[in-house]
Specification:
single chain; about 250 residues; mainly alpha; 4 helices; rod-shaped
Amino acid sequence: MSLKKLWTALRGAASEGIEAAADTQSIRILDQELREAKKELKACDENLTKIMAKRKMAENKANALKADVETYTNHAIAAAEKGDEALAIECAERVADLEANFETEQSILNSFLSSEQSLKDNIAKAKTNVRRMEQQIDQVKATESVQKAQIAVSTRHMGANSKVKTALDSLERIKAKQEQRSAELAAAEELANEESGSSLDAKLRSAGIQPGGQIRGNDKLAQILAAKKSLSLGAPPTPTKLLVSD
């Protein structure tokens, strides 16, 4: 491999390593952002609760002022009908003050209502985005885990195939050695049989001839009697002949 190709391969490996580290870091960053977003949402819920409480108080105060306006309006009408103009005017002035306070409180109430609704909408959108981000992060993590498992299984499978092939090769070598050894032992045994004459005996037996022959009873008796007669006459005994059976 040339130095240029080697340098290109090293740069490619380094780039892949950097990308893998960046991807891992990106997931960690998303996890951290997700935790911070949930923390902010919790704070938003708390602020929304406070705004709703203040809105409720403003609403109660506005309703109370509205009730007072109606009450003193009726008082002014009643005083005027009785001819008590001074009391009627005093009640009317009180109604004017209450109406001014009511308008102020109603304005505050409207502001709380607007803020409350806006915050509710924003929180709902944020929660939707957080749930979507959380789902995507979980999906990425699950996919990453599955792919790592698939890579591990594939790598082990390839390694296992290599090991099985090596084992089969060793088995074939052992079988070949055993066959060679069996052939050598058979050849040695055949050579030993030829040297001891057992090979010839085997050939005779195969031909239907009993090696060494067998002496019949009549022949053996004749040999014994002949030997005894020779001893009586002083002649050397007749040697026993090897008879081959038919």
